[in-house]
Amino acid sequence: MEYKSSELTSKYLRSRKIPSTACSGCGLGMNHKIVVQAIQELDLDVGDIVWGTSIGCAGRQTFATWKGDGFAGTHGRVYAIARGLRIALPPEKYLILTVGDGDAFGIGLAHLIHAARCNADMTVIVNDNLGYQSTGGQYGWTTPQGAKTDSSPYGMFEHNLMSEGMDVMHILKGAGATFLARHVSMDGERAVETVKKAIQNRGFSLVHMPYPCPTNFASRELGSRNQVNIYRWIKERAAPLGQEKNTTVWATGIWHDASNSRPEFSQLVRETVEKIRRTGTI
Questions:
Q1: From CA 238, how far away is CA 244, in angstroms rounded?
Q2: 170-220 pLDDT, tens per residue?
Q3: CATH number at residue 110
């Protein structure tokens, strides 16, 4: 079901943060709406969720936007904070983190892997604008091969986490994540349904969501800030899992769903502490 933006913003978001201060045509607002719409369709209230944010475009635009409780982490550390909160918060509270590609797959990758390893109950939305756009448009950990950026004027040629058979999803699955998915901003309702499943998994969930950046990425790679061009460029390079072509960069959909199949971190901690109290041993 499609909700009007005004319905969602008035219920869940702070009016002083609407409209966003993001660049004109930025796809982050579409990603943000997908998450908030998923929350609405799950019939969750503001008080049910604690929202964490990070550094960069994704963190700056979503920080303090949620009407309820929220927090911001230093670059790459929001997952460590969330693990601590997961123990401190009541089990019925949900943790949602909106982070950027550099925060998740660069400086924060070790913390992200450990959150997946212990299966801490949190939903991580990685808003990926294909590089370090808030610092001028340098290439990053998931920049498509050959893309021209501020720091790769002849095309990005380094191996990264999205090149030549490598995919960060495989790393996170191996680390123990129980739900992994990928969608681009234009996936709309398909993405909403996936985010709902991610939130419902009582364990570590991550949804990787590449989105258009007209200001920096498009101006370097496409030679134009025309918003239609960058939206079309990303859409043409995305395809549902199983329907990939040679030109597909982002295979979209649910990559791995082992929801509720492993003990959740805070539950395991509480049960172990209680057992030690009763028996003096684990």
A1: 8
A2: 999 999 999 999 999 999 999 999 999 999 999 999 999 999 999 999 999
A3: 3.40.50.970
Average pLDDT over residues 237-266: 96
The closest alpha carbon to 117, from 269, 264, 256, 258, belongs to: 264
**What number of other Cβ atoms are within 10 A of residue 117's Cβ?**
15
Place of tokens 């709309």: 188
Span 74-116, pLDDT tens digits: 889 999 999 999 999 999 999 999 999 999 999 999 999 999 9
Does 1 fall in a domain? no
Residue 102 is assigned to a structural domain of this protein: yes
In a domain, 225, yes or no: yes
Taking the C-alpha atoms of residue 176 and residue 168, their distance in angstroms, rounded to an integer, is 13
Q: Is residue 2 part of a domain?
A: no
Provide the H-helix boundaries in the chain: 5-12, 28-41, 56-62, 78-88, 101-102, 109-117, 168-175, 189-200, 219-221, 227-236, 265-279
| 239, 228 contact by CB (below 8 A) | no
Supply the range of the domain harboring residue 126: 7-279
Q: Is this prediction's pTM over 0.70? A: yes
Give the contacts of 114 (CB within 8 A, at least 6 positions apart).
79, 80, 83
Contacts of 135 (CB under 8 A, 6+ apart): none
| Nearest C-alpha neighbor of 188 from the set 39, 30, 20 | 30
- Number of structural domains, the chain? 1
- In the sheet with 250-257, reading across from the earlier edge strand, the strands are 70-72, 49-53, 94-100, 122-128, 204-210, 179-182, 250-257, 238-240
